Amino acid sequence: MSDTDTPIVRRKFTLPESLDDQLTEYAKKYYTGNRSEFLRCAIQDHIRTREGYDEFAIEKVQTTLEDLIERVDELEETTKENAAPQPLHTTPDARQPAATESSETLGDMDAQRTVHQCLLNAEPKGLTFSEVNDRLDADSMAIQAAIDELLSKEFIEQKNSEQPTKYQIDNRT
């Protein structure tokens, strides 16, 4: 038996004027002005909600949300792993990185991290290219490429006033 075959019962009830205005507004907006149809649908929706009919939809949303949270956590972990500086073996001085890693064997990001760490460990006056190269004992071209990239990203700054040019951590950021 469909809704059209169901006998219609008339009910009389009272509403505050503000609620009647909303009834009229939403009936016009969604039900071509049919206030009775709007009320029937609102009652059915309320019953489904109260009886948990839409719990499946809520559980589906919760499962999707949990999956998204898990994926975000995985992405955050991957980002942390990729962004974390590589451990640098240090000499007893602890300010100078030991020459145990060569930029020849490092990827671009690792070379940048290694150069950045070398400059962090340097005294505040900065280091020349030769000093960085000596401390890292690495391929000159890889070091220069890392310095150029760090300069372009504004992680380090170039002190042109001194000869030879020195590089230091950019303290403006």
Throw out a few tags for this protein.
Arc Repressor Mutant, subunit A, 2 domains, three-stranded antiparallel β-sheet, 54% helix, rod-shaped
The low-confidence parts are: 86-106
Q: Tell me the series of helices and strands, N- to C-terminal.
A: HHHHEHHEE
The SS-based structural class is: mainly alpha
Question: What's the arrangement of strands in the largest beta sheet?
Answer: 1-3-2
How much strand? 5-15%
- Separation of termini? 72 Å
Helical proportion, percent range: 40-55%
Beta strands, count: 3
Can you describe this structure?
With 173 residues, the chain is mainly alpha-helical. It has two domains: 78 residues, no CATH class; 67 residues, Arc Repressor Mutant, subunit A (Orthogonal Bundle), CATH 1.10.10.10. The protein is 54% helix and 6% strand. It has a three-stranded antiparallel sheet. It starts with 16 loop residues before the first helix and ends with a strand. About 12% of the residues have low confidence.
Can I get a quick summary?
By secondary structure, the protein is mainly alpha-helical. It is built from six helices and three strands.
What layout of secondary structure does this protein have?
Layout: H1 17-30, H2 35-50, H3 55-83, H4 108-121, E1 127-128, H5 129-136, H6 140-152, E2 156-159, E3 166-169
Antiparallel strand pairs: 1-3, 2-3
Helix pairs in contact: 1-2, 4-6
